Amino acid sequence: MAVSTYFQNPTWQSGLVAEGSAPLLLRGVPDIAGNADPDTGVNMRANGNEPQWAALTAVVSQALKKKAGFFIPLLYANSKAATNDIAIRNNWCLE
To answer: What DSSP designation does 49 have?
Structure first.
């Protein structure tokens, strides 16, 4: 996770620690990635674009049968269950 040099951290990032540092004083800027493997990844396309977050929000809204709304704080509150580290050794060569 990178740390902003300008923006204050939002309440849902309280107590988070960037790797190898003290608790965040400014906003954490996480790296977000999706499964890009053409055989196992999720292919979402809208108007010729692949808006990953918009598509994810649409899928969540469809499952809830209502608008998902702003769910980023919910992801942070449940980050252990909602996310996982995909890097193995390094990000260039996944084995």
So the answer is: B
Residues 27, 54, single domain; the answer is: no
* Amino acid of residue 22: A
Burial class (CB in 10 A: 0-12, 13-18, 19+), 80: exposed
> Residues 25-55: pLDDT tens digits?
888 877 666 666 777 776 666 677 667 777 7
Which residue range(s) make up the domain with 81? 49-85
What pTM does this model have?
A: 0.53
In 1-95, which ranges are E strands?
Answer: 2-8, 26-29
Question: Do 81 and 54 belong to one domain?
Answer: yes
The total of structural domains in the chain comes to 2
